[in-house]
Amino acid sequence: MAAMTPTNAEEFARARAAMPGGVSSPVRAFGSVQTTPRFFVSAAGPYVTDVEGREYVDLVGSWGPAILGHAHPAVVQVVQDAATRGLGFGASTPGETQLAELIRDRVVRDGVDGPIEKLRLVSTGTEATMTAIRLARGATGRDLVVKFAGHYHGHSDGLLAEAGSGVATLALPGSAGVPAAIAAQTLVLPYNDLDAIREVFAARGDEIAAVIVEASAANMGVVPPAPGFNSALADIAHAHGALLIVDEVLTGFRVGSAGWWGIDPVPFEADLLTFGKVVGGGLPLAALGGRSEIMDLLAPLGPVYQAGTLSGNPLAVAAGLATLQHLDAEAYARIDAGADTIADAASSALAAEGVTHVVQRAGNLFSIVFAGTAPRDYDEVKAQDAFRYPPFFRAMLEAGVSLPPSVFEAWFVSSSHDDAAISRILDALPAAARAAASATA
Question: Looking at the structure, do residues 317 and 334 belong to the same domain, yes or no?
């Protein structure tokens, strides 16, 4: 007799018995959307399939890396080829250099080289931002770091205060287990508030090693920087001898061929950039880069130590290279057009049901905020009618569309979202908008 196909609920029960909360990352538990998480077993193009055999149009995209679509044939092929040569060597490979060169060469604007001269490959975005901060402290001899409420830079101890992403989804102020002395080294300010930046630098500028900022906030929903905000951050930080770390883990090579650095309406000078998601093509890989005089402070040349057994893993490098090589102008045009169509349709469906909302955009990244005005900071994001999102989410899921399971996350469109996939999304939106309209706090 053939084995019975497990349900998502059964898989979740089994997972809860073996793993805390039944998940390897908190938002996957679907707690904030009040339903059973889906356990996916396969994916192709714009679709994912769960253990019950049900297919969904995917707007999560592995939280960004599946920018070409899931299991893109060219990416899969190079990973398979790399695997036949060895899963890892614990030594340098030519592919690492190729990927570093490709990332460096893409971060240009109007034909002018960007701020990256050298890169260090790591395995996660958390590692990239953690290393960038250590590097900034080593370069300046200072301890304090400024971050912004609602910005998520990974789960290292000093950066979890008022963070976005899963921390926002779970309504946590930070994390237990972070010593007060470490938390005190991070100064948290409201986003898009230059007066607050000027005040903290006036008071403690000679203690601040760096300001770290998402290039465009996308972990508290999408909240773009005010025009000139990133440029002003650089000016203020540099005037006090501090560095500017720009986190492009989400936006890097997602919103354009040079990331947000290449499309910000007001060019800005970054000292260090961090990347993840897209640069690994769906496998664990991230990077940080900047000017040689800063990057060369890393061991083995300098006194700032960082290491990783799996850093520059050849399979991840191969996936990243193939992904970036296929992200040409045509691919970005398809992604941008798909994002425009889906975002506009979502807004129209909600408006037709009288649901107060705005759609926030940062290039092709977008999210819905259930508020009457576009929020500029984390407090305004948290003030929205977030109770409308769970029924909206569940209605979309029931119709076969997989959205991010939190109102505090961005939606991700890929170049594989063709007319058929987009049509399925558009067909699902009216019922989801009605569910949002009937929701009560």
Answer: no
